[in-house]
Amino acid sequence: MRSEWELRYENISIRHENETMSNISSTEAGAVPMTSAQAHRAEVLENPLQTYLLGIIISICGNFLISISLNIQKYAHVRQLHNGSGPYYTSGFWWCGVVLMGVGELGNFAAYGFAPASLIAPLGCVSVMASAVISVAFLKETVRTSDIVGGTLSITGTYVLVTFAPHNTSEITAQLVQYYIISWPFLLYLFFEVIIFCVLLYLYKKRNVKHIVVVMLLVALLASLTVISVKAVSGMITETIKGHLQLIYPIFYIMLVVMAASCAFQIKFLNQAMKMFDATEVVPINFVFFTASAILAGIVFYQEFEGLAILNIFMFLFGCLLSFLGVFLIAWNRPKIKQEDRNFIAMNRIPGECVPVDGALIRLMSAEVVTGSV
């Protein structure tokens, strides 16, 4: 079933084309020929599964590359520690890991342009699972029962949520993003989010409430804006590459600024959380909060659950729950990582390196969790 914005957008496009054709020749009669944009739109609507699967594959491959990069960087740090060689950033292995991290995050960024945000976010558990497997195979980590059970639950949850996630795909155009921004569900959602964020920030800064849930909620509220803006920017870039120019609209640059700002503040709060709490606590809690906020953002802003059956919604949430439990079990009871003994460097401390896409720092922290016993 097509949503309201699709019907409205199609009616406006058809009316505009009819007016244009009548101005060119008032004597012409018959069917109005379809423009290339309309033909592309029809093709996407007729073959949504192809675009949907492409987004899933890109996201999984991106997360797998990220897990490889994390373990390569960890290996470079361990080797530098044992050999007493120069700084970590002089190692070719370390820079190889950085490059793979960038490619993986770029893949995740692109995936938001092809698949629903509520699906791409939970697939982040692939990075945690792959990191655990790679650390056992190449860094000679000990396999625990909780790792096996957690990996099994995460794989099962990933399969369930991919199967029952919303399969509808739509072109993210500047006009569509503008329509969503002024829709009353998003305005109401934004209003409550700002109120909650201000209350939490007041408790954190003024009342000195340093509970991990407060900090992670601040990150999650920012993450919802990041997901919305990342999908908007990625979608408009995708449409531009396909030949439908979107970069001339101011909304593209507004979303670009929102994306950069929300990412920067997330990194700030995550760094503070890592200073106050252990990575074994931060990683699973942030994964749950970030995924929940991404799903909620997709539902409210992009209306991704519109027309979805109750069974599909229930099974999708059940798949997310299995993934959450899997990540908690993988991170559970890992050796505590003391501040002074941390060998793995966060991305914000890499000279000249920046994390452009949400979730990169959390994946770096997950590498600390997975390889914490080295």
UniProtKB/TrEMBL annotation:
It comes from the Eukaryota. One of its GO terms (cellular component) is membrane. It is found in: Membrane. Its main location: membrane. InterPro entries: EmrE-like, Mg_trans_NIPA. The chain crosses the membrane at residues 52-72, 93-114, 120-139, 148-167, 179-204, 211-230, 250-270, 282-302, 308-332. One of its GO terms (molecular function) is magnesium ion transmembrane transporter activity. It is a multi-pass membrane protein. Keywords: Membrane, Transmembrane, Transmembrane helix. Belongs to the NIPA family. This is NIPA-like protein 2. It comes from Gouania willdenowi.
